[in-house]
TrEMBL record:
Signal sequence coordinates: 1-23
Segments forming domain Ammonium transporter AmtB-like: 45-493
Transmembrane parts of this sequence: 47-66, 78-98, 141-163, 170-193, 239-260, 272-291, 303-324, 336-357, 363-380, 392-415, 435-463
Top-rank lineage group of the source organism: Bacteria
Molecular function GO labels: ammonium channel activity
Protein name: Ammonium transporter
InterPro entries from the UniProt entry: Ammonium/urea_transptr, Ammonium_transpt, Ammonium_transpt_CS, NH4_transpt_AmtB-like_dom
Family: Belongs to the ammonia transporter channel (TC 1.A.11.2) family.
Location of the protein in the cell: Cell membrane; Membrane
Membrane-protein topology: Multi-pass membrane protein
GO cellular component: plasma membrane
Amino acid sequence: MKNVTKISGLAALGALAGLPLWAQEAAAPLAPYTFEQSVNNGDVAWMSISTVLVLLMTVPGLALFYGGLVRSKNMLSVLTQVFAICALVSIIWVTYGYSMAFTYGGSLDTFVGGFSKMFLAGVDVNSKVATFTNGVYLPEFTFIAFQMTFACITPALIVGAFAERIKFSSLMVFVVLWVTLIYFPMAHMVWWWGGPDYLAQEQTALLIAQAAGDTAAAEAAAANLAANGLLWNWGALDFAGGTVVHINAGVAGLVGCILVGKRIGFGRESMAPHSLTMTMIGASLLFVGWFGFNAGSNLEANAITSLAIVNTFVAAGAGGVAWMFIEWAMKGKPSLLGLVSGVVAGLVAVTPAAGFAGPMGSIVLGLVAGVLCFLFVAYVKNAFKLDDSLDVFGVHGIGGIIGAIGTGILVNPALGGAGIPDYLSQPGTLQVAEYVASTAIMAQIKAVAFTLAFSGVGSFILFKLVDLTMGLRVKEDVEREGLDIAEHGERAYYM
């Protein structure tokens, strides 16, 4: 995932231009940048564990978390939906999804990758991908597997928004369309870049070409430096998926719950969770798996990984405490559902900031997310009469927005943040760029606005297309009977 911000070649040259003339004249001529690709077995081991942890978040974590929140007659349907999405998307990912997300896309490269690695063409045990340290690489299969878990969990998050009333066949078709046209392009736009050595190579080539007055070579190097995803070039920071995963899925869920419509009896009949015990187990698995989700996104086992682990832990705790106490104050009792929802809200909010913020900033982020997500779920959602069954937008959408914007603030070293990385001012080394609040925060706001619009409009079109061709919603008698028997021919419980 991404933990660098693109600094333009011209900006880097500006630092050189600020040197005294005699210093520039005395500098030795630049040589082309060369590097070796080194694989650290410790990094591979950590990333393999992180991959398994993120899979644990989906099955059984998310499946049990969602399953416990629905009525018993729909428990099995939710388990089936989440498990089926995980299986389906894993096949799509290695078929063409990885290529669309993480390869060069030619004239469309700003928005989406190409098909050069369709069916994993050209990938073998010797191929490698860059991490965030010059000279440090991962086996490409390791990176493919890790990113596959993100592709699986993101569409699975969406189903909670319209649980208990969507047709299984229509959901499967929607998921295929959504990951293809929404998720893969978003992953490319946020996380596609060449890696630190590629940037150093092209930045050095640019400096050499400019010093030699070679306009054509300078233009080619500048074009290569700009061959990144759209949001990456904007300087948007997203360490582990605030935009790509949480806002993306949250907005899709909001659109879906509106278009599918309210459950029969919504607002009149009790629709209480049938097993908060299952929900607590699922939430605990999400909590544990999230360390792979966030800390694994560093792609290496180093100090930033340790920072992400601490940030994930304390933001989750802060989110849970904030939700618990505000619910206690406003509704009279602290609930288990509120506590685990707050923990998830804190985890969502810290996701884009996990490797950028400091621990104290992460606590603040969790506290803010716990309070604002509670207020949305408890009051705003009801005011608009939204039947977002399991609060996908209220937790993932709102929490993701808070986290994404907050990242632009908390990355500031003056607030304990790690600072915005700069790979270009001194090619081949990692520097910390000067923090400019207006630039950093505006980049985050632009990324949030783009994700809301892209996912919102795109998801609306896809939901409508499926609805017009297949119908999104089950029949009334099926909904009343429960989706377990009517859709799958079995029950979650036989008692």
